[in-house]
Write a structure and sequence with these properties.
This protein is 7% helix and 44% strand. The radius of gyration is 24 Å and the shape is elongated.
Length: 264
């Protein structure tokens, strides 16, 4: 999408239409535009780069229309270019249309801004071949060996203990040392009789299988098993498509617990 060169918006108190000197208000009516993925394509929108002129420094806000929060970048007065990165990449699939907004706010309702043009940054995939995992890799800019399921690239290649499969399955960031905040958690019931084990699951990939396993000594047969594990419940999925799943086992004997994730 593009806009006409040198379209002027503002001031806020004006009532003119878009494209006139009284078009948009400073921090008032946003610029709306739509993005449609062609049939057979998937569009991944990561950020917007704006080419601007303003009489004062201002804040550019960029988000999907109706979203709870967006992302902002502060730009100086005069001719400048700024990029606002979405909090999470937005995927538009196979003929789907999404609406975005851009707001300009300098704190001065009489301030006008001149938008020369803007460019959306991201990627385009073939819908038929772009799996959920591949879209996830694209959103973090991973390719080649860094995109393998077993890759663990954080900390200069030393990793954080979670490979790409586990980061993907549990809602982690494969480029950030975030294992402590992503790994399953455990807690003992108030009466001490149950151990509760909680992990995340993504809902948009049917090729993933999550299995909670127990073993009593990590040495002797029969080894890891689902015997002794019981399902308790799960939450609704959050905004990122992950739900919280709870299982439990009794505390009558020593046991080890782990989460196994497999991808077809």
């Amino acid at each position: 999408p593009t806009v006409n060169d040198y379209t002027s918006f503002g001031p806020a108190s004006g009532s003119g239409a878009q494209g006139t000197a009284a078009g948009l208000g400073d921090g008032n009516a946003p610029v709306f535009f739509t993005v449609t993925a062609e049939t057979g394509k998937v569009v991944i929108v990561e950020s917007v780069t704006c080419y601007m002129w303003s009489g004062a420094s201002f804040i550019l806000n960029f988000q999907e229309a109706g979203a709870a929060d967006g992302t902002t970048v502060t730009l100086p007065a005069g001719n400048n270019t700024g990029t606002a990165v979405l909090n999470a990449p937005l995927v538009i699939e196979n003929g789907e249309t999404k609406t975005f907004t851009m707001n300009f706010n300098s704190g001065n309702t009489n301030q006008s801004h001149l938008l020369n043009g803007f460019v959306l940054n991201g990627a385009v995939e073939n819908y038929a071949t772009a799996t959920v995992y591949e879209l996830w890799l694209d959103s973090f800019g991973l390719s080649g060996g860094d995109a393998e399921l077993e890759a663990d690239i954080e900390n200069g290649g030393l990793g954080d203990g979670l490979n790409n499969l586990m980061e993907y399955a549990l809602g982690g960031d494969p480029t950030v040392d975030d294992a402590a905040g992503v790994l399953p958690t455990g807690d003992v019931s108030a009466d001490g009789s149950w151990f509760y084990y909680v992990h995340s699951e993504r809902e948009d990939d049917e090729t993933l299988t999550y299995t909670v396993l127990l073993d009593d000594d990590l040495v002797d047969a029969p080894g890891w098993s689902t015997n002794g594990i019981s399902f308790v419940g799960e939450s609704a999925a959050n905004a990122n498509g992950y739900k919280s799943v709870t299982n439990r086992t009794d505390t009558g004997s020593r046991e080890f617990v782990t989460l196994q994730v497999e991808k077809d």
